[in-house]
Please model this.
Amino acid sequence: MLATDEDAVICDFAETYHVLDIGALDLRLAATLAAGLAPDSRIKRKMSRTELPVNTLLLALAADNLAMLRWFNSADGQKNVNRPASVLEALTGGARKDDTVMTFVNADSFEAYRAKLIEGINHVD
Model:
């Protein structure tokens, strides 16, 4: 965790355990406390590549669903115009590029693609 973001760990320890000097702790105790940090702590969010707490994401999703329900029942919704903007997309910046899903027609096409990737990795200088 410290290698990922030492400042985030320091902030989380200060906020959660009121410990300002992590170096003063026994290594086992520090590891135990680090493992006990909440899933929405700064360091755990950073390590899981989640910028926002789960509660914030769920609230944004609920707001989006409510806005869509209102829109479906409006005159604009019946005409499929003026769709409401997504709060969730505004917070997260939309879909991530690394969330792309690839599909293959059969196992042979997958194996051919895999072989090209492995070949490219092996030829990197």
Observations:
- The chain has a mean pLDDT of 89.
- The two ends are 30 Å apart (CA to CA).
